[in-house]
Write a structure and sequence with these properties.
The protein has 87 residues and is mainly alpha-helical. The protein has helices at residues 7-10, 42-51, 54-69, 73-83; strands at 20-21, 36-37. The protein has a two-stranded parallel sheet with strand order 1-2.
């Protein structure tokens, strides 16, 4: 459950939008960029995927790519360093 690691970075670049289960630590972390389905409810996954049009799927992938470009590991490290006044 939750973030999938490297797949989070390559999926949208290949035009496959990411979806996540409704894990509390992930819900809302990405704003409206990531669609969510009910954990362990496979019919909700199917419903979610069937409800997204091809145009919406492209828009989600584009927005996820934009998010990825602005949230690299280096960006995240910089924010942590800045937040804690290390530099």
């Amino acid at each position: 459950r939750g973030m999938k690691g490297f797949r989070d970075w390559i999926g949208p670049k290949l035009g496959a939008p990411l979806i996540y289960d409704n894990y509390p630590q992930v819900m809302g972390a990405y704003g409206l960029v990531v669609p969510y389905y009910d954990y362990n409810d496979f019919s909700s996954i199917t419903q979610l995927l069937n409800s997204i049009s091809d145009e919406e799927r492209r828009n989600i992938s584009i927005n996820q790519c934009f998010w990825i470009q602005n949230n690299t590991i280096e960006d995240q490290l910089y924010r942590v360093i800045k937040k804690h006044g290390i530099l």
